[in-house]
Request: fold
Amino acid sequence: MTALWLVLAVLHGQGPVDEGTLLVRQDTVEIAREAFRLTPARATSGGWTLGTTIRFDRSRPVVVLDPIVELGPDSGATTLEYTVADPREPLRILGQFARGRFVVRMLGRRTERAREFPAPPPAVVLDDSVFALYLPVAWLGRARPAQVTALFPRAGRRELLAVQDLGIEPTTLNRDPADLRHITVTGGENRLVHVWLGAEGRLAKVEIPSRGLVAARQPAR
Reply:
């Protein structure tokens, strides 16, 4: 068990394990804010619930994305409930992992679609516009690259990603110098994602250089 998992084991049951707000900038311009909360799952078998809400309100129409992912004790995703509040196309997404498959239902105003993806474990749920979802991906990082199956249900795609833990490295957080745990996620359409964790494995920053995106944790008020 890694040091991060030891910390999570100690914190489990004392929830929330982590909560905060990410300020999302693209090419230094603020485009959204994302509030996330990681809590111990209600099930006696252990695991966590990761809920996050990101609001894109710098342009019209305003779009709010609100996924909730249930995670098993091994940090792998088990279920997804996802509300997309977009006046052009409101959507509800329901997902279930079982026996190496991910079954997703897309419920629109007048339509319903279902799709199934191969999802050998470890498997995670991601979204191109939701950044706290990279937290459980970071948990899977090891000194050697580890392969992870990533499902992007809203985009309807599946990717095989490599996750690697590079250890503690210097960076900046809100323009201040910081020493954080650095995890890289490589492959897929984003090519490279940097995930930075702070004390006790808490999410500090997500960077996607190919898109000029930085989602940085804001200081608690």
